[in-house]
Q: What sequence folds into this?
């Protein structure tokens, strides 16, 4: 492809509104343009990469036994009413009315559509299991679209849905998808971890998120370097290791005047104690009841764990009025001592048991209690794992050290169970003629987000560094001066020979200065750059430069095809897969 | 691909709401399912065909020098305000508001988006011409979605937009697209004509529609069997050949009492005359003025020609009140005699000149005038070609006979000119540093509609008859009884060998009766069917059947690959292209 004929509007300036590397580089390398907040046009270079990722996704999904179909973006509201999601999805769901005033959603995901399709077309165990997928444009009206292709309102997703008759069947499909995703993200050149995650609003148990590791990630991952444990912060289990009880019991409880002292930080300063000596008391509304949740002052309560403990559908901090009504005091002075358990249930994180001489709120404005002992001065209905893991905790699998990393979610595999099939009547007749709900799994990949994640992991101050497998082209051929006829001819010949050998070439035939062309080449970031100078005509040699390492080699013209293929095989593991022998 | 693992829900019943062959067959062959009116899911078989059509479109577009990108479906209303189309597009434009109450359209077409992109990224003649295309899901809230994939509310389109500095440049791009479309529709196996068409609301002059010829077409095409003339009814030029003036002039004009006689049909009966002796007078509102248009009683006024004559943006029949105010009579009794030309301009179709002794309305309820002569009894401001062509007219190119056919529009090439570039400020600096508007063309293909058009042209009472190039698979391998181990093994071996030879195979491994499998095979309509019976094991022979002709051949197992490839090459011209030697 001749660069002069391709729309690659590179930019010298760093766009003002782009905060992260991939966003800046997608704009600067002339790959994407924003049309509206969170809505982008993919220019020709980006589309080539997108198509390559899609091809890898298709290949792995088909190999895993999934079948591709294509569902509509416009989905009738009636379907969403059947699962109740029309009401619970909130403003993220893009809604519209047609000319007949009928309501539609623009699909952010397709559980409703696929479940209704399979319900209508499959009714016997003989036709199950089945796993159906599509690669399609999705719509989510994000409250804060940002980071370029990382968090968009219109984006491209691969979504798959499996239907089984048994839990073991679901386990097999789930494992096949887990393996396919591992292959896919390996093949596109990502550094990723599959982490245990919480199912969130979509429901179901047994889910993994595939996280591309990078600093800009919105999620924190806790992982162990020994073994394969990796989990979202919200999901990571905290192992309770009881502390040694001190020899002497704490003195009797005592009330302290602590005017205006409300936060843990203020308390540690005012009383000259450590945060771990304090017990935080938080009042939550959990569905229709009020709960006081206790955690140690140096720990963070985990709302997901709280929600799961009660198997609740709603968890949120209680209102000031609620807090006042059950404790008699405002937030900041709340504590478990003397609470009326008819009004509020008290639960506590396991580690609260270790606070043998603690400080809590006195349920009275400007007062706290010290020398408080659980069991002696107050009781709780149960202890449980209710807090976020920290880097001082241990791996629940190996007992080894826990590390934290940031990650961007690029894939997600879910066990849905029968949530949607039951709601929508997707049943089949089993071997005994009995009607049973199908057991479902769903599996998503953020296809367009993957472009950004790969760039986020593969760039330097000069631009993108594409993995060979999804680079828009493999090689950038650049004559130093295209107006020198011999340089031009040799460049064209090289481009031609490489193309015939299955190497994709971008030929920079623009009448620009060499410096401009080299800068653009670094920005665009194709794996290899071939520079054709007068040396080519005079000595029959061209320079081949590896974008990733900066290494250069002088290569004889007659060796160019073999040498380029060999160098591509050495660039990275994705190049080895494509060009290795 | 094993049929047991593929979602192909064939139907025995003809779906009640499907009127036309392609709609019935897409449903019956298990290729598509309706989600909502005009909104369909493409099941795996249809998606394979869709992908093949897309690959052909891509190849031809790229060969023609166009570059692929991908624009968003969600388009900010501001862009549509810039061209004024937000107001004129009407309810066909799907509109929505985001969570911040900003208005968006779901793209029915992308002139606004592409023009704003090119405006922002290209500013010099050095970067022009350029031709950009995408294959994308489009949305149009059709008033009457129907005919399955023919007229949808959500559909897949290829749209391309060219930008040039000169009219000659546009002509070249236009011709390149015309040629690419000819290749594309030939390669997918369509019987089509490129017909001259009117540009309609989108504007611009010089447009062709690529029409697939089939009876269910909503458009009528006038064409000549000599030469290549083909035009939409609305566009086809009518050549005026004046009739011989009779020797004696008509008698003096005379008023007739014609109570309740309003239509041409009633008049011919009441007065015992032919329709061609009557002059119809129709009052139109043309932008902000009223126009009386005269056509012969046996002719149809063509509103497109009327609109073009006045270079108007709006043409519509006048209201009863308007008619009364300028003629003093209601519709049905209107005529050109004695009209106040301050209130209404009178124009006439060329052929009205030939009515040497005519009948017209008397501008008085229940009265007509007879023996009316143009020029003597009334005058018009101009004569022009204002009517639809008929099969009695002649070809404007060759003078030969005109035939009519029905067609479904599958492609459209437009010369837009500077309409959008001027409205949106898409200018470039020319060689002299002067700012000029870019000259645009736009070029669409109904990709999903093409599936339906191909089926419409290629089917019989048993099902679809796929052209080789876009068949979901090339060959259907069917063991008569899959439970007979030898049949199964031979079938698998054949499927395997064919696959290795680049022939796509659907292997019917379902434990169904042979009759059911044959019926499904005819319905699905793959080009060749290979039946594996006991003869295969006993005599080493299988039967190969050509779906299109019903011919069968007994083929030796060792010859199967060569023979199947040779037969595919003979099925149709698309097979010859893929498998010919």
A:
């Amino acid at each position: 492809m001749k660069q002069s004929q391709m729309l690659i509007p590179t930019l010298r300036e760093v766009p003002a509104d782009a905060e992260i590397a991939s966003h800046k580089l997608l704009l600067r390398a002339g790959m994407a343009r924003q049309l509206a907040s969170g809505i982008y046009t993919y220019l020709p270079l980006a589309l080539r990469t997108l198509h390559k990722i899609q091809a890898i996704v298709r290949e792995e999904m088909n190999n895993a036994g999934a079948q591709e179909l294509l569902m509509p973006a416009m989905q009738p509201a009636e379907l969403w009413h059947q699962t109740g999601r029309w009401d619970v999805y909130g403003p993220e769901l893009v809604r519209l009315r047609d000319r007949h005033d009928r309501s539609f959603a623009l699909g952010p995901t397709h559980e409703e559509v696929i479940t209704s399709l399979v319900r209508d077309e499959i009714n016997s165990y003989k036709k199950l299991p089945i796993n159906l997928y599509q690669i399609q444009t999705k719509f989510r009206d994000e409250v804060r679209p940002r980071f370029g292709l990382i968090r968009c309102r219109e984006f491209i997703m691969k979504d798959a849905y499996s239907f089984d008759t048994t839990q073991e069947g679901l386990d097999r499909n789930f494992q096949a998808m887990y393996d396919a995703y591992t292959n896919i993200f390996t093949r596109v050149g990502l550094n990723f971890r599959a982490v245990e995650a919480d199912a969130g609003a979509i429901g179901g148990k047994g889910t993994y998120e595939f996280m591309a590791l990078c600093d800009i990630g919105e999620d924190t991952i806790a992982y162990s370097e020994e073994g394969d444990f990796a989990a979202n912060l919200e999901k990571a289990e905290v192992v309770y290791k009881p502390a040694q009880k001190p020899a002497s019991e704490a003195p009797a409880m005592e009330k302290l005047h602590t005017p205006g002292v409300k936060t843990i930080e203020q308390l540690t300063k005012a009383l000259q104690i450590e945060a771990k000596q304090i017990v935080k008391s938080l009042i939550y509304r959990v569905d229709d009841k009020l709960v006081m949740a206790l955690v140690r002052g140096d720990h963070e309560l985990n709302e997901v764990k709280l929600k799961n403990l009660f198997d609740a559908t709603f968890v949120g901090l209680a209102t000031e009025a609620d807090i006042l009504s059950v404790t008699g005091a405002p937030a900041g002075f709340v504590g478990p001592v003397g609470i009326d358990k008819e009004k509020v249930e008290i639960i506590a994180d396991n580690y609260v048991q270790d606070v043998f001489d603690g400080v809590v709120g006195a349920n009275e404005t400007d007062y706290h209690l010290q020398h408080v002992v659980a069991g002696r001065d107050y009781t709780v209905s149960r202890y449980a794992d209710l807090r976020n893991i920290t880097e001082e905790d241990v791996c629940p699998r190996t007992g080894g050290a826990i590390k934290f990393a940031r990650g961007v979610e690029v894939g997600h595999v879910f066990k849905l169970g029968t949530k949607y099939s039951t709601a929508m009547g997707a049943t089949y007749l089993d071997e005994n003629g009995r009607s049973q709900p199908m057991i479902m799994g769903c599996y998503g990949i953020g296809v367009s987000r993957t472009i950004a994640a790969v760039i986020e992991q593969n760039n330097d101050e000069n631009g993108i560094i594409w993995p060979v497998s999804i680079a828009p082209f493999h090689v950038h051929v650049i004559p130093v001066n295209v107006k020198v006829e011999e340089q031009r001819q040799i460049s064209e010949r090289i481009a031609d020979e490489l193309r015939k050998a299955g190497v994709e070439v971008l030929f920079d035939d623009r009448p620009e200065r060499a410096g401009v062309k080299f800068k653009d080449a670094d920005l665009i970031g194709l794996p290899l750059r071939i520079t054709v100078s007068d040396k080519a005509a005079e000595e029959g040699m061209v320079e081949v430069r590896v974008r990733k390492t900066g290494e250069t080699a002088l290569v004889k013209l007659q060796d160019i095809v073999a040498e380029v293929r060999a160098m591509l095989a050495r660039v990275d593991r994705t190049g080895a897969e494509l060009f290795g022998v």
Chain B has three domains: 3-7+16-237+404-455, 254-384, 465-579.
